[in-house]
Amino acid sequence: MKILALESSCDETAAAVVENGRTVLSSVVATQIEEHKRFGGVVPEIASRMHTESICAVTEQALADADCTLSQIDAIAVTYAPGLIGALLVGVNYAKGLSLGSGKPLVPVHHLRAHIAANYITHPDLEPPFLCLVVSGGNTLLVLVRDYTDFEVLGRTRDDAAGEALDKAARALGLSYPGGVHLDRVAQSGDPKAYAFPHPHVDGSPLDFSFSGLKTAVLNTIHTAENRRQTVSVPDVGASFLHAVVDALENNTRTALLMHPEMHKLVLAGGVSANSVLRERIFNLAKQMHVQLYLPELSLCGDNAAMVGAQGYYEYLAGKRGTMSLNACASMPIEENV
Question: Could you tell me the pTM of the whole model?
Fold first, then answer.
């Protein structure tokens, strides 16, 4: 079964053709990084306009690279939530048009479910159930994936997501967009013990995350130094902050594994899953806890349409369909179905 998948939730316009949820026949991504870099972050209006300019071209290229036509496609999958509403609407409306014109069924896909599904492409042997740590710019979740379309959230961030905190810290340190990537590189030459940042936890909810206080702490450290006409070591602050964030992610994941000893597989997903410190620490944690670890290949960590096609396949098998009344949603829990 071949699925044409579309992704436009933030600043990447992507299209892919995926067969049977595991085999990528083509994957095309048009990035907007250079356009947003001069603003220090994603500008929603610009992102939406650039999606509009790119979506036809990436779709045509994905079909050409897969050596197939729209008539040979069995279904059309599209990210409909969560994300920037204007950006999502471009992909959703384009997919609805393709579905209406071709008669192919439309399959709505949740963006975070798609990030988890990126691991099905990297690891064809991976099957639920498993525990998944999802870490992205807008979300941080600990999820029990009981089946391909059955999710239970064990813990979530109460405020900022880990990726957002990393991006804000990087910007405060003068690093260019995308901040998290540059922070990871700079931190490799820093001392993670140079600065003592707090290790937040949520009272009564051991699996929930909170990063706003940690973000404030690093901003205060930088501003205090500026007020005193002192300089901070960017590598040291970056390394100390990054390790504090990863400590929280690692500690909660360890607690979740202890609370659910029946889970013998651990999966990492989301854009921040490309972070080198996080990957190393989660690898060591899995080894200590004697669970099998699954990491997405680096090319599938960021937003792409191949992961949408992978999850779209299982949503299709579960009977999930979108009609011409399908709308985009800026926020939606991973457990909900359209």
Answer: 0.95
Cβ burial of 149 (10 Å; 0-12, 13-18, 19+) is middle
Superfamily of domain 128-298: ATPase, nucleotide binding domain (3.30.420.40)
Q: What stretch(es) of the chain map to CATH 3.30.420.40?
A: 2-116+300-317, 128-298
Q: Establish how many alpha carbons lie within 13 A of residue 152's alpha carbon, considering only the half-sphere containing its beta carbon.
A: 11
CATH class entry, domain 2-116+300-317: alpha beta
Quote helix, strand, coil % in the chain, to nearest 5.
45, 20, 35
R_g over Cα of the chain: 20
Nearest to residue 211, comparing CAs of 245, 237, 169?
245
Q: What is the pLDDT of residues 254-312, one digit of tens each?
A: 999 999 999 999 999 999 999 999 999 999 999 999 999 999 999 999 999 999 999 99
Quick: pLDDT tens for 143-201. Answer: 999 999 999 999 999 999 999 999 999 999 999 888 999 999 999 999 999 999 988 88
Determine the Cα–Cα distance for residues 174 and 171; give it in Å rounded to an integer. Answer: 5
**Residue 116 and residue 133 in contact, taking contact as beta carbons nearer than 8 Å:** no
Cβ count near 336 (within 10 Å)? 10
How does DSSP classify residue 81?
E
Residues contacting residue 230 through CB under 8 Å, at least 6 positions apart: none
- The angle, 0 to 180 degrees and rounded to 10, between the axes of the packed helices 162-172 and 179-187 is 70
